[in-house]
Every structure is written in C-alpha cells, then in structure tokens.
Amino acid sequence: MLSPILLIPAVLNGLLTGAVYALVALGLTLIYGVLHIINFAHGALLTCAMFAAFFAHKMLGLDPYLAAVGLTPLFFCLGYVLQRFVIGPAAHGEDRNILLVTLGLAVVIENALLYAFRADTRTINLSYGFNVVEVGPAFLSVPRVIGFGVVIVVALALWLLMRFTDTGKAIRAVAKEKLGAELCGIDVAHIYAVTFGLGTACLAIAACLLLPTYYVNPHAGNAFVLIAFTIVVLGGMGSVAGALLGGLIIGVVESLSGLYLGESLGQVGIFVIFILVLLFRPSGLFGERA
Amino acid sequence: MRSYGGIALVVALLACVPLLTASNVVLNFMVVALLIALVGQGWNVLGGYGGQYSFGHAAFFGTGAYVTAILQVRYGVNAWFGLVIGIAAGALVGAVTGALSFRSGLRGSYFALVTLAFAEVLRIVASVAPITGAGVGTLVKLDLRWEAFQFQSRAPFYWIILAFVAVSLLIVKRIEGSRFGAYLVAVRENEDAAKAVGIDVVRVKLSAMILSAAITAAGGCFYAQYFLFLDAGIAYGPWISVEALLAPIIGGIGTIYGPLLGALVVKTLGEITKLMTGHAPGLDLVIYGAVLILVVAYAPRGIAGLLERYRAYWPARRRT
Fold first, then answer.
1. Which terminus of chain B is less hemmed in, N or C, by CB atoms within 10 Å?
2. Burial of B135 (0-12, 13-18, 19+ CB in 10 A)
3. Is A29 exposed, middle or buried (0-12, 13-18, 19+ CB in 10 A)?
C-alpha cells in the first residue's frame, strides 16, 4: 500500500496543486485579515478570471502566463471597484450584511457567466500543456511546476509589499486598529478597497496558472472555494504564512486521500479536515483569535 | 395582522386559490412558492430570530427528502410515516451539526462556513453512496393514492403544502410571544449580554436550530412527494440553501410573514424573468442575487420592514 513509488509522486503532485490552492487562499485570507469578512464571492471571481484568461487565449492568442501580466491589474481594479462601490456601501458596516452581499455577488457573477457561456466546459491546448519533467520516481507536469514557482514569487512579493511600502503599512494599520488608523489620516475605505483588489488580483494570477492544465466552466471556481476556506481556517484567518503552509498541506491531503479513497471521495477528506479544524481549533495553526 | 386571526385570514385567502383557477401552471407556481416559504420559514427561525445565518440549510432539506424517498423505495414504508421520519431525521441532523458548532462557540462567518461545509459533505457523500442511487438519483414510484401521499391533481398538494406553511406560521407566532422567543432575540441582538443575564445561549441556539431543521426537512419531504425525483445536486445542492435565506431576507427577516411574502415575490420575479427571456439558464438567479444585494443595501428589514416604516407615518411619531 505505502510503496514509495506511488507515494512520492502523489506527495509531489499534491504540493504542486496545493501551491495554486494556496494562492487562491492567499487572496481570501488577505481580505479576511483586513476587512474581517469572509468573501463568498471569491470562487465566482476566480471563475471570472479563468474565463478572462480563456478568452485572452482564444481571441487574442495570448499565452496564459502572458495574459497574467494584463489581467492582474485589471482584476485589481475590479476588486477595488466592487469593494468601494458595491460591498462597502451596501453592507452598512454590518458583518451579517457583508456575508449576504458577497453571497449575492457570487450568485450574480456565477449565473451571469452561465447565461453568457452556458454550462459547456472549455479547455485550451498549449504546445507545452502535457510536457513533464522527471524528478526521482515522479513525472511532474511542467505548467504546474512553473505554477509552483510563480506562487512562491507572488507570496514573496506580497510579503515585501506588506512589509516595506507605505500602502502595506497602512493595510496592516487598518487590520490592527481601524479607528486608530483613521485618526492618523488613513483613508480606511480606500485601504479596504485596495486590499480587496489585491485579493482579487491573486485570483487573476491563480486563474492564469490553472488554465494550462485545468478546464473552465461557470462553476469551475466553486471547486476551489471550499478548499480555499479550509486552507484559510487551517492556516489561521488572516495569516499569509498560514495560507501558504495550509495550501500545501491540503494539496497533499487531497492527493493522498484521492489515492486511497478514489477521486470522488478524495474531496470529503478536505471537508472533514475543515469541519474538524472549525470545531476544535477555529483559530487555525497561525491564527491569534477566533 | 398581529394575532392568530391574521394567520387564519392569510391562510383562508390562500386556500381559495385552487377554487379560482384550475390552471396547472398557476397551481404549480403556487406550490413551489409555498414550498420555498416553508423552507424559508425554517431558516427564519434560526437566522431571523436567532441571528445565526446558515448557508447550508440544504443539509436539512436534503435529509428530509432522501429519508422519505429512500424509506418508500427501498423499504416499502408508507409515505406519511416516511414524512414523520424524514422530519425527525432532519431535526437530528440539525441537532448534531448544531451541537457541534454551537458548543465550539462558532458564530457569524464561522457558523455560515461550517453549515456550508456540512451541506457539501452530505452532497458529496450522497453523490457516491449506493443507497441514494448515487449519480442516477432516486425515483419515487408513481402511486397516485392519498395513502401514498400522491395525488392526481395539483390542488390537494397545494392544500397540503399550505397546511405545512400554516403550521409553520403558527409555530413562529407562538415563538414570538414566548419566553423562548425573547431569549432567542436577546441572543441575536447581543450574545454576550444574553449570556451575562443568565440565558443558556448554547441551549437556546440549539433548540432554534433543531426546530429550524425540522421545518426545512418537512419542505424536503414534500419536495420528494411532489417531484418524485431526487439526486445529490437537487437535495443537497447550494440552490436550496440560497432560496432558504433569500425568501426571509427579501420578505422581512425575523418577521412572521417575511418568508411567505419573500417567497411569493422572489418566485414572481423569477417567472417574469423567464417569460421575458425564454428559458435562459441562470438569468433568474442573476436577478435573485441582484435583488438580494439591493434589499440588503436599501431595505435591510425587507418588504415587511418597508411596510412597517410606511405605517409608522400614520400615527403621530413619538420618540421615546
């Protein structure tokens, strides 16, 4: 059962998948850490980004990795606008309302995509889509290895941004003490929107990394959303390091439970972890408070 | 409409619908609207009065539906008896998930997340477990006798779902006037303060969740009898979780008639959209989502809240 010939490739592949999960979760945890809201529209926005990347390839012939360069700022703006002009004003600052507004957004986006593109599943063909590299006993898909590298770079860039720029300082200030930050002259509504924009921009990158090996349909993002919630809860809400580590753990767990329980039940392993963590350690591995 | 007389009047008026029209389209529309009103009333008990927003009421709906259907199909149990067991099973799922989440102190977003996760686990299990028919689904055998809880025409179905709704209205009315209802609202408004004055918060929330789950499960049982087909996506799918919270929020959260009003409005909106655009998939849900955002933004107490605000202008307004 536990032959290393099977186990090592499963673990390595799990790590590669987990890296992309981590990126999706990174956006979610960033938004949670600052706005203290759970963004239920995260999955729908990911689907949106995947469609954008798909059509960038179909219509403009852009390679997904190239498309990321344009889509990332575009989705930053989209996230900024959504928070500044839809979620913020509609929620009147009440947490329960934010839950409902983001849920409403998810329903609108997902079904607008369903209306526009029907339920068809689409994929793109790239010359390098099926290339593999050999690492020990495992054959790893080249696009996913690239994805892993990009995620590490993005996480590092995000960390540098939060650590050393004025915007990053303002974001951290708002996350810690909203009123105090406001008194220091920080425009809280602007910072909220910037944070939401950064979270959404992470999704654009994740979508471009996924597309070479994944498919897109109007529900594609949903597959990631509960996984991303699990990672965020596991890593600790608002913790960047937690999201990264949590993503990798979940990737491996999914890969292993898929190996032992079969494809369709593999996901149950993730949800069981999710429920257990929520019930017994809602603050997660790195979280400070529940 | 502040007394039981109000409920009697509303139910009596609604009961006349099949006498006025024999159109299957109209009756079918009303049956589905009342079904959503029932499921929404279940959500309202926990979310509206107790302030615990569940995103996974599909867990209770689906359990009620599957238990009724499976008991009939696989064990030959009578459908009415299946209804009772289905409701009990839904309540049990509510008790287990509620006990787990409330005892670990999950609130707000965390509670919404964990309910969503429970519903998803059930959906995935139901989509592979042999007893639910896995991918094929479960088909309830056609047997048009009242003993089998199936009818030739739509009118009896309509009266039965109306009776369910009437019972749910009475239950909520009872809660509103009871000590339990006052505890529940206290928990909604400020949980820590409620605890401080000696309310057993976990117990109150748990009772509300069990009741909420039972009402929603009754809707699931009815669904199984009316449509005679279930699969994992129908029974445990996110659509019913969304409809369950949409109706009370649009109609008026934490009010007796909110879910009924909301369900009628939402379903009418859906029908209008379908009429205008043909059967384009997704567009009615786009409208629902947009209405949800608009209601939260501009009418946080829903239609009932708007009506109340309107009425408040009649007598001289007093400030206390």
1. C
2. exposed
3. buried
The amino acid present at A122, given as its one-letter code, is: R
**Pairwise CA distance, residues B99 & B84, whole Å:** 22
Chain B residues near residue A279 by CB distance under 8 angstroms: 100-101, 104, 106, 114
Q: In chain B, whose CA is at the least distance from the CA of A97?
A: B296
- Which B residues, 208 through 247, put their C-beta within 8 Å of a C-beta on chain A? 242, 245
Q: Does the pLDDT of residue A52 top 70, yes or no?
A: yes
Q: B215: closest CA among B267, B174, B268?
A: B174
B104 touches chain A (CB under 8 A): yes
Q: What pLDDT is attached to residue A202?
A: 93
Picking from B110, B117, B283, the nearest residue to A115 by CB comes out as B283
Environment class of residue A148 by beta-carbon count within 10 Å: exposed (0-12), middle (13-18) or buried (19+)? buried
Q: What are the pLDDT digits (tens) for A2-28?
A: 677 778 888 888 898 899 999 999 999
Q: Is the minimum CB–CB distance between B125 and chain A shorter than 8 Å?
A: yes
Query: Collapsing DSSP states into helix, strand and coil, what is residue A141?
Result: strand
pLDDT tens digit string along B187-234? 999 999 999 999 999 999 999 999 999 999 999 999 999 998 998 888
Q: What is the pTM of this model?
A: 0.85
Inter-chain CB proximity B53 and A99 less than 8 Å:
yes
**Phi, psi of A142, deg, nearest 5:** -60, -50
User: What residue ranges do the domains of chain B occupy?
Assistant: 4-319
Given a cut of 90, whether residue A63 has pLDDT beyond it is: no
Q: Which of B108, B118, B127 sits opposite A275 (nearest CB)?
A: B118
- Inter-chain contact B124–A290, Cβ cutoff 8 Å? no
What ipTM is given for this predicted complex? 0.82
Find the closest chain B residue to A104 by CA distance.
Answer: B289
DSSP assignment string, A151-218: HHHHHHHHHHHHHHSHHHHHHHHHHH-HHHHHHTT--HHHHHHHHHHHHHHHHHHHHHHHTTTS-B-T
pLDDT score recorded for residue A11: 86
Single out the residue of B70, B67, B58 nearest to residue B124, CA to CA: B58
Distances (CA, A) of A89 to A230, B51, B57, B299: 28, 22, 28, 13
Class at the top of the CATH hierarchy for domain B4-319? mainly alpha
